[in-house]
Amino acid sequence: MFIKNDNGFICKNCGKKVEKLGYTSRDHCNFCLYSLHVDIEPRR
Description:
The protein is mostly loops and 44 residues long. It contains no helices and 2 strands. The chain has a two-stranded antiparallel sheet.
């Protein structure tokens, strides 16, 4: 089951701080557009 994650994070690619959106899950860095798949059990 998908769990919404709207936490801020430090991008593993460019190192910049990415702030939370405040209304939905963020799945990529808004600076370099790098994304990282972090679902432990993706939706089937």
